[in-house]
Amino acid sequence: MTKRISKQYPDDFKQEAVALVLEQNYTIVQAAASLGITDKILYSWVSKHKKQAQGDTLSVDERTELMLLRKENKRLLMEREIPKKGQCLLCERNEVRYSFIKTLVSKYPISLACKVMQVSSSAYYVWLKRPGELITADTLELFRRAKALFKASRNSLGSRELAKALRKEGFSITRYRTIKLMARLKLVVTQRLAYKVTTKRKHSDSVADNLLNMNFNPVGPNQVWAGDVSYLKTGEGWLYLAVVMDLYSRRIVGWHISKRMTRGLVEKAFLKAYNLRKPPKGLVFHSDRGSQYTSKGYRRLLKQLDCRASMGDVGACWDNAVVERFFGSLKHDWLLKVPQPTRHHMCDDVAKYMKYYNVERLHSANADQSPIDFEISFRKVFGWS
């Protein structure tokens, strides 16, 4: 049985046929016979034309526009019907969004779902063909520890330092794999620029010789200490931090914070270090030529404790580079990443960093050990106490 195919007539032909009836006073039967069409078809054309003239029906252009509007409205409704939880996944990696799109394909077009989730359709189809990745329990533990270590450093560990920290915890991982791991977990190092303010000595104060000469690696603990002062800005005003570092292990052995930058600030930091470590006679303490360190009172304190003063040259920051680097890490990697509204909050945050720095932060100068771990290894080998 052959399928009957209805004949299609162009719009111009229809308009001429209707004009015969309405303008030239042909009857429908006469006009249909002259055009070779049935009177039933012509009657429907005439009836439709009259309704359009009266505004009862839509024109071809209006009907086309209506269909487009309905199609657009349907698309917008489908976009709104996509569950709200899908919007929360826009910040997730593409694999999570692909999995969500897969749950929508039974109700929504894939192209629309991909558009709403801000991924390309081609990438989604490639993901469908890719075999699923099996993540082992060891890999999940690696991910967990990497995130925890990175967060503990306030987003400061680069790929090299993160790889060292993970290897310390027993993971076998290279730096290249750590770079890929950080990219996958979106671990991005952030730093803030710190301010730098310097102090000048009084010309009436004497200056000690430079006994260090940039030799930052003494052979044992409590042989060479270094110190400096830094400015800390809070919402309530300035604070001043003085530190004392044992250059052997890079450990901060003494520190003090005050609202005023006086000689007492550096003296209290040094006395805390001295009472904690009980260094032998002849300890070298290296600093810059700030007025607090060149003062007669501070020089007198070092002499009473049988310690020798050492000072770097004017304008040569590398003469005390290790302590300068510590202050850079303190500010860039820690303090400037969170608001510091009060002096009390700043003091607590500095104390947290001192603990993190001495106990957890790994140093390449210490064979990738923390300062305290490095001193413990020295104690085991040489019996130092």
TrEMBL record:
It comes from the Bacteria. SUPFAM superfamilies: Homeodomain-like (SSF46689), Ribonuclease H-like (SSF53098). Residues 217-379 form the Integrase catalytic domain. Transmembrane segments: none annotated. One of its GO terms (molecular function) is DNA binding. One of its GO terms (biological process) is DNA transposition. Belongs to the transposase 8 family. This is IS3 family transposase.
